[in-house]
Amino acid sequence: MVGAFAEAGNAMRAYFWSMMNWNFFTDDPEKCMHPFGAAHQRGTVLTGALPLAQFWVAVASSTMSKLEQTACANVQHASEHGRLNDRWIPSSNAIEAISQLDRGENLYHKNTPLFEWIGSDSSDTSRRQTMANADLLQSPQELFSRCGEWIPAQANHVKNMWGANDATNIELPNHVQVIGPLENLIMAMGVQVNACTINTEAGPVLLGPESEIQEGSNIRGPLFLGANSIIKMGSRVYGPTTIGAQCRIGGEVSNSTFLGFSNKGHDGFLGNSVIGHWCNLGADTNTSNLKSNYSSVRLWSEKEQMYVDSGLQFCGLIMGDHSKSGINTMFNTGTIVGPGCNIFGSGFQPKHIPSFSWGGGQKWQLHDFDKFIHTARAVMERRGIILTEADIECWREQHQIATERRQ
Known about the structure:
Elements: H1 2-18, E1 23-25, E2 46-47, E3 50-51, H2 52-64, H3 69-81, E4 82-85, H4 92-99, E5 106-109, E6 112-117, E7 128-130, H5 142-145, H6 147-162, E8 165-166, E9 177-179, E10 185-187, E11 192-193, E12 197-199, E13 205-207, E14 212-213, E15 218-220, E16 223-225, E17 230-231, E18 236-238, E19 241-243, E20 248-249, E21 252-254, E22 257-258, E23 263-264, E24 269-271, E25 274-275, E26 280-281, E27 286-287, E28 298-301, E29 306-309, E30 317-319, E31 324-325, E32 330-331, E33 335-337, E34 342-343, E35 352-353, E36 357-360, E37 363-366, H7 369-381, H8 389-406
Parallel strand pairs: 1-4, 5-7, 9-12, 10-13, 11-14, 12-15, 13-16, 14-17, 15-18, 16-19, 17-20, 18-21, 19-22, 20-23, 21-24, 22-25, 25-30, 26-31, 27-32, 30-33, 31-34, 33-35, 34-36
Antiparallel strand pairs: 2-3, 4-6, 5-6, 8-10, 28-29, 36-37
């Protein structure tokens, strides 16, 4: 009986801690997360199946059920009165390090701040603890290369958050074939699956509220499909892949991340890529994700203003928010596209397309800001989301930076 009471107590504590909120600050002096920048800061970037802020809640709730009561209280207080680096990936070690901080004591990894108390003096090195190892996002490529690690780790939290069932408790239509463990297929309320195959052998498949997999599609986990997203008829999606909320996906997709609200509605291959918010890939847009000589892919560095070795053999397209490609667009291996671009034309596009570019091939001009805002507003309203004045001012600032760099 004592054991039962202890288990119930731990469950209640985990639920209580899961209600906490984390605050975040942005620390990316080297612009290593370009081209996502301001639009995906402060805990909003999608890491696997969860925004970073919710990822911290998931790890905290599972870790704190194992900590002493005093340590738990320290973490709770820290979440209310402190801020986390928005590139810091949560872990049990990170939670334990925070639990050991004295009030007003900040946490660093080398010279990088990890946690700071709101209102504290960051220059006061006497009130600073250090952490030898910290998992900090160093590039947007990690958003696709690590989703195979993150999605399985987050599956149970996502299942509980949705109040979802797995396929052992769901009567699936006869025309749906599941290959692999049924418990790895997790379905929220309102999911529709029709005449498709879903392979869960390599990892879980998480289907969000009101999402849909249409007829003739073949899916392999690990996969996260966000709320109200659709995988269209005859699609092939290879995990590990993350598809955020309100996306439309067609054709062939392999080990890629859609951060949400974007479309790849037609045939064409996308591999080892990250696509931001409000993007649209025109029909038969294709990406190369492997060089013909199998060498490491070089990527544009916003800090260095030059191409640098990524250390990756497979890397396709990294596309910032509100960028679009016309039909039959071809992207080279390791292409970086800034936000606000409109890309069209024959032949392979440049491997670095600066923010707010309009054109294709060798002919480019600056995307007019008023036209950009007009399109952005129309695209967002189709999904029932309003472009705010704060959004407009943020984009105006980024457009001004892009304008100055062209001069």
